[in-house]
What we know:
Elements: H1 2-18, E1 26-31, E2 37-42, E3 46-49, E4 64-68, H2 75-82, E5 97-98, E6 109-116, E7 119-120, E8 129-136, E9 139-151, E10 154-165, E11 170-179, E12 183-191, E13 199-204, E14 208-214, E15 226-232, E16 238-242, E17 247-255, E18 259-268, H3 276-285
Antiparallel strand pairs: 1-2, 2-3, 3-4, 4-5, 6-7, 6-12, 8-9, 9-10, 10-11, 11-18, 12-17, 13-14, 14-15, 15-18, 16-17
Amino acid sequence: MKRIVVIALAFALLASCAGKPEEQKVMAREVPERADDFVFENNLIAGRFYGKALEGNPTSPGIDIWVKLPGALVANDWYAEAVKPGNGNYYHKDHGGKDCYKVAVSLGGGASVPYLDGKLCYPATNYRSSEILSESPSEVSFVLHYPEWQAGDVKVSLDKKVTVFADCYFCKVEDTYTFDTDSLTIAAGIFRHNKKETIEAEAFGEDYYAIWEHASDTSVEPEDGMLGVAVILPQADCVTLIDEERHGACLKKIAAGQTLEYWFGSCWSKGDITGSAEWFVLAASF
């Protein structure tokens, strides 16, 4: 009789475990209630791209990094609070993380643009439409569409596919550029903020650029943590500083029809990665 009871309890336990839903560790969506942002997040990192409603303030493809403590998804809660009357600065204040990264007109924390005649050639608009391609509790993929713009003498458009993985500090990018020439050099990079003592350290490799810096947007409240930011472009042609425009970037020439694949990532020193050496090792070995 005792054996039967034990077996019954074991089957009941297995049944309860099998029926337990997998924890949601990723999310991505348009945020029409807040200036057409497109937000993405996993259990370690978060960020956003700028939409149509923010054009001119700024018009920029740059990735805006949001720092957060490892664990729960927080972006939807932050937006819900931010849209309440008089609460617009909510996610610029520390609620276990915040937006303390200044993008302006730049690549921010890991965007890409054509690089022609020594200059970054930014889109004429922010992303104008998006699609969620696939979604599960541990992985979400989406694509952002940037309409055609003039990059030097070349007409260019961009479909930017981003995949966000659970338990990972890096997101994968697959950029499909359409252009009217045989080849085009693309820069995937990071903005180097020029405030006094902002840049603490930086690291280069054959296919990555990483930085460790103070928060660049402290307009709402001071920040005592540090940010790690990195971009990784496998088989890059070179990694360089673009001094005039204050960027570190990985450059690669692509042919018409070729997809540019690279990774961008970030961390906050108040989380699991507390120092520059650890961040640089992660970027170099990713």
